[in-house]
Amino acid sequence: SYELTQPPSVSVSPGQTARITCSGDALPKQYAYWYQQKPGQAPVLVIYKDSERPSGIPERFSGSSSGTTVTLTISGVQAEDEADYYCQSADSSGTYEVFGGGTKLTVL
Amino acid sequence: EVQLVQSGAEVKKPGESLKISCKGSGYSFTSYWIGWVRQMPGKGLEWMGIIYPGDSDTRYSPSFQGQVTISADKSISTAYLQWSSLKASDTAMYYCAKVVAASPYYFDYWGQGTLVTVSS
Are B108 and A43 within 8 A, CB to CB? Predict the structure, then answer.
């Protein structure tokens, strides 16, 4: 089955830039999406189609894609950005959607 | 305003059946796929499957095919997730979410989650 690989954790100090990666063989062919999940809350979409930001999501959230890796970048990290972040995409045929394992962002 | 309101927490015994619900409002319920996501305690998100309420077309992730049943009643704008015989390993938070039919599909609005606890 298809898998998306994320680092389990990323730590940054407030005001710094956090980069969270997601790797998968089908990412050159399939868009990726990013969700933020804070403790005890439902996930929230923060990036769609690799780099588009939904309305209401702060500009400090951005996404990019290069080959088999997509990256969520949070510039000027704030304490409120501490959360789990999940990428989501699909296999090369687009038949099965999957989530990455998630990355816990810690703001030091 | 799009809203997905899920049914309340459930505590069940192994072998029992269960059906949880997700009521959509603020959009055309029959025109958008709606999906279910599992999150086991302390773990990540898992895509379970989706249903198109307009014609009940349903697509399951291979891991969940045959393990659960996804259905919808378009007359009351409600989607369902059901089990015929629960196992302890079904203990999890279950989210419903509205699907954007892009390529690939993704979720733009989420319910608040339903916690299912299966314990003897």
Answer: no
